[in-house]
Amino acid sequence: MTTRKTGAQILWDALEHQGVETVFGYPGGAILPAYDALLDSTIHHVLVRHEQGAAHMADGFGRAAGRAGVAIATSGPGATNLVTGIATAMLDSSPCVFITGQVPSHVIGTDAFQETDITGVTLPITKHNFLVTQTEDIAQTIKKAFHLAEGGRPGPVLVDITKDAQQRECDYEWDDSPVELPSRAARPTVSPEELDHAAEILNTAKRPLILAGRGVTLSGATGLLADFVEKTQIPVAMTLLGIGGFPASHPLNLGMMGMHGEAWVNQAIQNADVLLALGMRFDDRVVGDPKKFAPAARKIHVEIDPSEVNKIIQVEVALIGDLAGSLGALAPKVSCQDLTPWHDFIGDLKGDSAVRDIQQLPDSGHLYAAHVISDLWNLTEGNALVVTDVGQHQMWEAQYYKHDAPRKLITSGGLGTMGFALPAAIGAKVARPDEEVWVIVGDGGFQMTAAELSTCAQEGLKLNVAIINNGYLGMVRQWQEFFYDKRYAATPMRNPDFVKLAQAHGLLGLRVDKRAGIEEVVATARAAEGTTVIDFRVEREDTVYPMVPSGNTIEAMIRRPEPLLEKKGDKPLVKKD
Amino acid sequence: MRARAFVVLVEDRPGVLDRVASLFRRRAYNIESLAVGHTERPGVSHITIVMNADDRVARLVEANLYKLVDVLEVEDVSNVPSVTRDLALIKVRAGHESRAEVMQVGEVFRARVVDVSPDALIFEITGTEDKINRLVEVLRPFGILGLARTGRVAMVREQTPAEEFAHEGVL
After folding, report:
1. Rounded to a whole number, what is the distance in Å from the CA of B47 to chain A's nearest CA?
2. Average pLDDT of each block of 10 consecutive residues along chain A (577 residues)?
């Protein structure tokens, strides 16, 4: 039924029709009409402490839920504060819809108070964006925004709505018809010849390897991949964002590849004669030197985005389209040779494992981040939804927390955004309230968005925040150690008392500096009602091994020097403060 | 690496040219020339982009253009029979002692005189980029006072080129 509604009312009605139950935002002048109408909507609004937090929350929601998260902000500084979060979502193909208020249409272009050309600013970091100046266009634009954000290769879409368009009334009725975008009509499908070509390559392979990326999860192809591996017995290496797309406990899962992947994973890639790349984009953290990446391998790329094909690595055949469809069509044509010799070859490489060695070290009385994460994995039985920040702890998480299910690790891979973890975890918890959510974050990244602890308290959300506190910007310090002659410029940090900081928010704060204390604080945190912050005081100058320096191949890998950490009775490598 | 021309049909909306140009900037593709105008279809604009690229980059450009929501159709016309034209206005010094000679040069190139003043005249010339470059070189000794060019526009040929246009050249 047609009724008279303001643009602001239409906005919330359209969001309700899209199935939105929660938005993350911060009010301000140009978005005030929308906020006024919010009070009459069924949608719950989470008030953040900084718009960057809202953007990461929408992103975290999108990654956890598999449908678009929504963030809302005012014009000018409100909109520009979203930018880091939008870019983060863009590089990791996360479905999000961002709504910003804009100054009234008659003053656009006059440098009005809090005017920023946010569609111009976000043009290269959104999948698409819209400037809406007409009330009549709001509902259809919201519909298109969700369609674009969630469809194909997901990504962020921004809708900028002028204040007058929010205020004005028009006749309104929700239009349920499907979105039609002329440019999106015909998409290429995989041809039988391409499938045969790919199958021929796989069927003659002696040393094939699957490289699984985030596309496996995005396409809902985790079951298909498991069946495919069962049938073909091809081992699987994963990108950082691919983790969870194939169970970590599966014997054919080799683990993470690339800069901080175990040596055997990268050696398997370099020795492979066929690579089947699934929904991954040959990022430089995976490839190193593209000229020397798996030189002997014939390469097949299964990818939804044609602009990713032959961008970094030249492939022999590309199956362009939805991964689940392509893999489903390919599977019946593939029948691999006996791969036992290849499995044996990789099995022999596995003797060289940094991760296993450190996991099995006896308790020396010191606290190492690797032990914290490995113990967390054990204590949560591998079932937690983990959200990490960026840096050393992120790589340790990828190495030591073994995820068997998809959408259980949320991390900023492409953009590497510090400050991501806490707000993204809030979004993930809102999306999946029944999950046990752990934030694993460094002391540096935590302080970038620590204000969102206040949001946790206000919303009564239950998160467990594990601060891996080494008093350094650890990953940068590690690069300085290796590549800048240990000149630690601007990496040592003097931190606040994180326990007191938690308490100041009315939250429980805990501290531990010995491995023997981990179990108890984890149990206390899990039993506590609200968000709990644990300050893990870890070894200050610990290093993520192995490491392939940027732009290099596996041959240049830096290994943990002997002896591994310290042996009992040895002096600690570094004096603790 | 060679010159490539892409014909891109886009929805005629505010900011579309910005999106296309921004893509080239963001991916560090270098535009040689860019020409935009209306088409026979209302609401659809025609963009001709010329750039230097090898086959791999040309495919990436095409794929990236298709990712823009306002882009309807992309055609790399470098490998298909097509007509490409450039238009230039050239203001050249031509006092009474050199005017006859300047006009003669123009005639050879089938350039039209569109303005005459006591000391100068303006030629209008359409043709391939190469033809215009040659005219500019020949006129240079007389003194070029101004030069404005449109950049190439391109269109795919419907069938075998007719005999009379054969000499006009195909990109």
Report:
1. 16
2. 96 98 98 98 98 98 98 98 98 98 98 97 97 98 97 96 98 92 70 97 98 98 98 98 98 97 95 98 95 96 96 97 96 97 96 83 88 96 98 98 98 98 98 98 98 98 98 97 96 98 98 96 97 97 94 89 52 39
What's the sign of the alpha-carbon dihedral A86, A89, A92, A95?
negative
Would you call B70 and A183 a contact, using CB atoms and an 8 Å cutoff?
A: yes
Asked if A468 and A382 touch (Cβ cutoff 8 Å), the reply is no
Closest by Cα among B165, B153, B147 to B111: B147
Domain with CATH 3.30.70.260 in chain B: 2-80
CA distance A371 to A363: 9
Give A-chain residues touching B18 at CB under 8 angstroms: 120, 123
Whether B69 sits inside 8 A of A128 (CB atoms) is yes
DSSP-derived letter for residue B142 is G
Sheet of strand B71-76: strand arrangement: B31-38, B44-53, B2-11, B71-76
Give the separation between CA A385 and CA A398, rounded to whole angstroms: 13
If you measure CA to CA, which chain A residue comes closest to B62? Answer: A307
Q: Which residues contact A291 (CB under 8 A, 6 or more apart)?
A: none
Q: How far is CA B62 from the centre of its chain?
A: 19
Q: Which one of 3.20.20.100, 3.30.70.260, 3.30.1490.20, 1.10.10.10 gives the CATH number of domain B2-80?
A: 3.30.70.260
Would the CB atoms of B22 and A123 count as touching at under 8 Å? Answer: yes
Residue with tokens 């985030």: A214
Q: What are phi and psi of A334, to 5 degrees?
A: -100, 130
How distant, in Å, are the alpha carbons of A143, A161, B24, B44, B51 from that of B11? 19, 21, 18, 5, 22
**CB within 8 Å: A306 and B68:** no
> What would the 3-class secondary structure string for A509-526 be?
EEEECCHHHHHHHHHHHH
Mark out the alpha helices in A331-442 (DSSP H runs).
340-349, 354-359, 369-379, 392-400, 421-431
CB contact under 8 A, B64 and A310: no
Of A501, A536, A506, A533, the residue nearest A518 (C-alpha)? A536
- Say if strands A437-442 and A464-469 run parallel, antiparallel, or are unpaired: parallel
A464 touches A532 (CB < 8 A):
yes
What domains, with CATH codes, occur in chain A? Answer: 3-174 (3.40.50.970), 192-349 (3.40.50.1220), 354-556 (3.40.50.970)
E strands within A103-226? 128-132, 156-162, 169-172, 208-212
In sequence order, what are the residues at sequence separation of 6 or more whose Cβ sits closer than 8 angstroms to the Cβ of residue A120? B15, B18
Global pTM?
0.94
The topology under which CATH files domain B83-155 is: Alpha-Beta Plaits (3.30.70)
C-alpha–C-alpha distance, residues B105 and A136, integer Å: 59
* Residue A500 host element (H or E): helix A498-504
Which among B60, B69, B71 has the least Cβ separation from residue A311? B60
| Global ipTM | 0.90
Cross-strand partners of A520: none
Interface test with chain A among B26, B69, B73, by most A beta carbons within 10 Å? B69
**A215's tokens:** 């596309």
Contact list, B11 vs chain A (CB under 8 Å): 182-183
- Residue B11 · residue B19 · CB < 8 Å: no
What are the backbone dihedrals phi and psi of residue A256, each rounded to the nearest 5 degrees, phi first? -75, 140
